Amino acid sequence: MSEPGAAEAYDATRLAFELGREVRELRERRGWSQSELARASGMTQSAVARFEAGGTVPTLPVLERLAAALEVGLSVKFEPRGAAA
């Protein structure tokens, strides 16, 4: 983590993984395959698979399409970091 940009890259990867995991859980609760979610959100099955695996950092429009397809709200917010907040 001492390399320049390492912490930022780690945070982006962690966020992509967490978002992917949440979308996968929502999809599975609906009993949908990746192909069904892809159809409902206007994506390809391979794009859904990459997203769920944390392999891509999504744009807001992609998150909005996934939220609409899954019939959930999307909340993007800033939160304080650490114990000092």
Number of strands: 0
Helix-strand sequence: HHHH
> Which second-level CATH architecture applies?
Orthogonal Bundle
What class do helices, strands and sheet pairing give? Answer: mainly alpha
Strand content: under 5%
Task: Name the CATH homologous superfamily.
Answer: lambda repressor-like DNA-binding domains
Describe the overall structure.
The structure is a single chain. This protein is mainly alpha-helical. It has a single domain (6-70), classed as Orthogonal Bundle (434 Repressor (Amino-terminal Domain)), CATH 1.10.260.40. The protein is 61% helix and 0% strand. It has helices at 6-30, 34-41, 45-52, 60-70. Helix 2 packs across helix 3. The chain is globular and about 40 Å long. The two termini are 23 Å apart.
Summarize the structure in short.
The chain has 85 residues and is mainly alpha-helical.
Write the layout of secondary structure elements.
Blueprint lengths: L5 H25 L3 H8 L3 H8 L7 H11 L15
Helix pairs in contact: 2-3
Features:
single chain, 85 residues, mainly alpha, 434 Repressor (Amino-terminal Domain), 4 helices, 61% helix, globular
